[in-house]
Amino acid sequence: MSLELRYFAWLRERIGLPGETIETGAATVADLVDELRAREDRYALAFSDMGAVRVAIDQELAGLDAPIAGAREVAFFPPMTGG
Amino acid sequence: MAVRIQREDFDLGEELRLIRAGRRDLGALVSFTGLVRDRHGEAAITGLEIEHYPAMTRRALEAIECEAAARWPLEAVLILHRYGPLAPGEQIMMVATASAHRAAAFEAAEFLMDFLKSRAPFWKKETTPEGACWVDARAADEAALARWHAPARS
């Protein structure tokens, strides 16, 4: 399926893109991260410590084990620092 | 109830005046304003860049605002957060809460701040003379959420 990816803050900088559209067969966020890590070193580096990465599926916070079937947009970013 | 996300600065006094305008039922109006400091520990800060996730930010802030309104008897709430490049001394954001009594207004303002610190999709990058670096989330900010985890008041 086709999926929009969004990257923010240092994830955006390490990957070198604000976002991209990909084709994936991943069932969960964790599967998707494994696919991305296998693509290129910059992804492997960005996703080397998932404890420092937060995920949103269609603009709602989600866990790594969350299914992505039917999702349109998955975003990856560091812990938020608002306020 | 209002959420605003904007690049431009804001006039705190004017925002508070608008909340009060034409009302006689408010007994308490509490506001908090976040400012850009010129130091972070030993490091001098020369600028702060705030990035956000536009498609998600409004939704996240409205959810936090709704949760506050469910917990306290609030007559008005404003959450205003800026993004883009800011200089030391500038205003980053504000929250304001109005209620008949001060306890609800104070508590709700703290609740809003605790949640938007670590649940609203904003990221800060500080510029120092040695270069720029992303601000790490503080464990204390995450811990501050724990005290609110009791169920909403009925």
Question: What are the main properties of this structure?
Answer:
heterodimer, A: 83 residues, alpha+beta, Ubiquitin-like (UB roll), 3 helices, 29% helix, B: 154 residues, Aldehyde Oxidoreductase, domain 3, four-stranded mixed β-sheet, globular
Tell me the series of helices and strands of chain B, N- to C-terminal: EHEEEEHEEEHEEH
Summarize the biggest pleated sheet of chain A: 5 strands, mixed
- General shape of chain B: globular
Give the fraction of residues assigned to helices of chain A. 25-40%
Number of strands of chain B: 10
Quickly name the level 1 CATH class of chain A. Answer: Alpha Beta
Describe it.
- The complex is a heterodimer of chains A (83) and B (154).
- Chain A has 83 residues and is α+β, with helices and mostly antiparallel strands.
- Chain A has 3 helices and 5 strands; from the N terminus they run βαβααβββ.
- Chain A is globular, with a radius of gyration of 12 Å.
- The relative contact order of chain A is 0.28.
- Chain B has helices spanning 12-20, 54-71, 102-119, 139-146, and strands at residues 2-6, 28-35, 39-40, 43-44, 47-52, 74-82, 84-86, 91-99, 122-128, 131-134.
- Chain B is globular.
- Chain B has a single domain, classed as Aldehyde Oxidoreductase, domain 3, CATH 3.90.1170.
- Helix content of chain B is 34%, strand content 36%.
- In chain B, the strands form 3 sheets. A 4-stranded mixed sheet of chain B has the order 1-6-8-2, with helices on both faces. A 4-stranded antiparallel sheet of chain B has the order 7-5-9-10.
- Chain A binds chain B through residues 6, 8-10, 56, 59-61, 73, 75, 77-83, and chain B through 34, 51, 53, 55-56, 59-60, 81, 92-93, 113, 116-125, 134-137, 142.
